[in-house]
User: What shape does this take?
Amino acid sequence: MNYFENTIKDLKEKNQYRFDFMDISSEQTKSATIKNTEMLLFGSNNYLNLSSDNRLKEASIKATKKYGVGAGGSRLTTGSYDIITELEKELASFKGYESALVFTSGYTANLGVISAICNKEWVIFCDKNNHASIYDACLLSGAKLVRYKTCDVNDLEKKIKKFKSKNNIIITDAVFSMQGNLAPLKEIAEIAKEYDIYTLVDDAHGFGVLGELGRGSTNQLNVKNIDIIIGTLSKAAGSVGGYVVSNKTIIDFIRNKARSFIYTTALPPSTYAVSLEAIELIKESNDKRKHLKEICKYFIKELKKLNLNVKDTDTSIIALVYGDELSTLKVSATLLKEGIYVPAIRPPTVKRGESMLRFTLTCEHNYKDINKVLDVLKSLKYE
Ligand SMILES: *Cc1c(COP(=O)(O)O)cnc(C)c1O
Assistant: This one.
């Protein structure tokens, strides 16, 4: 057998093999049609249900008619449009920063920004639970990588004292994408100030969901002095794209240096029109955010009553940890039979022994939907 077959066999033996795609053949709201069956979804990052919003569909159609379907080039050649500049101005203002730059995704934003700024003369202090795109970026940058225990500012400070060099940056997810908890951004910003270290925060899951009008995690925690914030337009904002906000000089530097920005075609112009309108919708979504908070609280309270391994969360990501891959897959399969789709998250996405069902709730879910899940989990418990 060759290398590829062996690797796949190994993944299957460890229950880490990723199954066939769950092809969706409808819109994605809180439910979707998967393989001709209507399924209730509990794994989407479409928190405000904007991916199927009518105003955004209209914005997309209108911009497609005006600009066409493709950008025609990279932003620095023929791929820049007035509407992108408009979106960048809006993002900067919404986030309270001088400047913004839009990337094709959150992944390419992390990759481009971190590898543009850091090189082998830099030390990156990196939260252990950071997103894969941050790790890939660190690796690509060639910087020295120093990982600290997740959210542990004492460990961070200890490592800073030991490894601090001439150029240093602390990088953390604002919301940890698998566990759903917030990083202690205030304390991190204070340490950074004390030791004169740059800070970069990835707020993929906070944007649109947390803070006043959905401005994000730093707003929620009232932290104003993070140097660079990266985010995505592919989650709460409903469509696609990534962004970075910072001061004018740093954004200009990134525009000149970030290879994943320079050497790729811009997104279809319509997507920027959609994101502009999405920010307006995000601002109007206070009721949705309130409802989301309430149903998450309820879900966690009920899961705890069942003595399941769940922690409080600051977001609508709720991690139900089963530990080993097989038990996680079994619960996921049982839910699937009942018409409920929750992805089973396994290594390498999480550490060994921390396999979990990662529930995400959206503003469309209601108490009845949650009770449906709870009934299945209850029946499994007393089997
Ligand atoms: C989803 C995610 C990304 C990637 O964003 P995309 O727009 O999907 O590429 C980056 N960082 C974190 C923390 C994420 O959860």
Q: What stands out?
A: Residues 221 and 359 are 24 Å apart (CA to CA). The chain has a mean pLDDT of 96.
